[in-house]
């Protein structure tokens, strides 16, 4: 059974804030920080997969991976966990 290290993206509420709970600008700031964090996560994942695909068989053996496993992982899209 394969387990995943998927981290769910927080749900973002776009409803008008209730009185006294914050402003639209605060909500947009929170939302944009979530989006920026997710984009950074995806970029890092893509970089790691690209580097994994460039490792030779000796280095893959050192970290306990076979070429087929590394190829399968490095061929995934950046948004796939």
Describe the structure.
Helix content is 56%, strand content 0%. Helix 1 runs antiparallel to helix 3 (67-74). It starts with 23 loop residues before the first helix and ends in a 7-residue tail after the last helix. It has 81 residues and is an all-alpha fold. The radius of gyration is 19 Å and the shape is rod-shaped. It contains three helices and no strands.
Describe the SSE topology.
Elements lengths: L23 H31 L2 H6 L4 H8 L7
Order of helices and strands: HHH
Percentage of helical residues? Answer: 55-70%
The count of helical stretches stands at 3
Beta strand count: 0
Strand content: under 5%
Helix/strand class: mainly alpha
What's the mean pLDDT score?
85
- Specify the overall morphology: rod-shaped
Rounded radius of gyration (Å): 19 Å
Low-confidence stretches: none
In quaternary terms, these chains amount to single chain
Terminal residue distance:
15 Å
- Major β-sheet annotation: none
Notable characteristics:
single chain, 0% strand, mainly alpha, 81 residues
Question: Could you provide a short overview of the structure?
Answer:
This protein has 81 residues and is mainly α. The protein is built from three helices and no strands.
């Amino acid at each position: 059974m394969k387990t995943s290290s998927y981290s769910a993206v927080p749900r973002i509420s776009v409803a008008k804030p209730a009185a006294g709970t914050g402003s639209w600008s605060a909500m947009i700031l929170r939302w944009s920080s979530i989006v920026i964090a997710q984009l950074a996560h995806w970029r890092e994942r893509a970089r790691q997969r690209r580097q994994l695909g460039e490792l030779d068989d000796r280095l893959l053996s050192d970290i306990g991976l076979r070429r087929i496993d590394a190829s399968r992982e490095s061929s995934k899209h950046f948004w796939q966990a």
